[in-house]
Amino acid sequence: MTNQTYPIGTPGQPWGAAEKTEWRAGQHKLRSHADEVVAKIDALRDRFDVDQYGELDCAPDGRYPLLAIRSRDWDDALPTMLVTGGVHGYETSGVHGALQFVERHAADYAGRANLLVVPCVSPWAYERINRWNPDALDPNRNFKAGGPVAESAAVLALIAPLQGRVLVHVDLHETTDSDESEFRPALAARDGKDYEPGTIPDGFYLCADSARPEPGFQQAINAEVAKVTHIAPADPDGTIIGSPVVAPGVIEYDCRALGLCAGATDASYVTTTEVYPDSPRATPQQCNDAQAAAVRAAIDFALANSS
């Protein structure tokens, strides 16, 4: 398959404004950020502080509040644990796994850690079950100073005062069948390239930061998640999504160089989770449970292994 089969654009030519306008016109609201995300955050206000760290103006589709959940008794003497979800709006368990963690487990860390949870970085894309923002840009390649993506810039501004104090950052993602059926073909078409088919791993895996791999940390997360859902095996060539497997269910990226959310802080312990919601062996609830388990395991490991 090449980008000749994608319905937008001219093969071999990157999209211009007209193609991006055509793409956006084809994106329709499929679910409600207000009802499914904001309402759940509002229900936590009696136990946690909720900050609106920005607002997206996505005219003509409306405006979206950008919300973060904080520990109520924030103590600068304690380490900070950052959790981000919904960087890609279509990755549903990233959003709802983060909310489930706060609702069921965050209180366990009172007096031991500060928690900052951003459940839905990309609300416009959440409603449209899409990877990109309204400008056909991927937020998870734009966590860089001066970048063009408002969703990413808002998170960078939120965490800027915390640089040097974040111990853990867990960024919650999914790898889905639609990566191959829609999003990677769209990316190839947008950039004027041929689409090269890839594989979708069946199971949970982690992407470590090659600059801070912390293999024991990654393995501790996978051990806890394995109690909830299965860990993805490597492809026959020893890779997952084309990257070498460095330990069972673990690959590495240079997160900062790629502009990934996981590279947004100087935290010692960093990982990106990847859940596979389309597996016949996993339910939506298992996916949420896996995300919450990963966050708990990450924080528990860091608290036990840092001075």
What is the mean predicted local confidence, pLDDT?
96
Going by CATH, the homologous superfamily would be: Zn peptidases
Content-based structural category: alpha/beta
Q: Roughly how many Å is the radius of gyration? A: 19 Å
Which CATH architecture? 3-Layer(aba) Sandwich
Query: Count of helical segments?
Result: 9
Looking at the structure, the CATH topology is Aminopeptidase
Oligomeric assembly: single chain
Q: Approximately how much beta-strand content do the residues carry?
A: 15-25%
Q: Point out poorly predicted stretches.
A: none
Taken from the alpha-carbon principal axes, the silhouette is globular
State the end-to-end distance.
52 Å
Count of structural domains: 1
What series of H and E elements makes up the topology?
A: HHEEEHEHHEHEHEEEHEH
Strand order of the largest sheet: 1-2-4-3-5-10-6-9
Determine the fraction of residues in helical runs and give it as a percent range: 25-40%
Domain Peptidase M14: 29-302
Protein name: M14 family metallocarboxypeptidase
Keywords: Carboxypeptidase, Hydrolase, Metal-binding, Protease, Zinc
Active site: 274
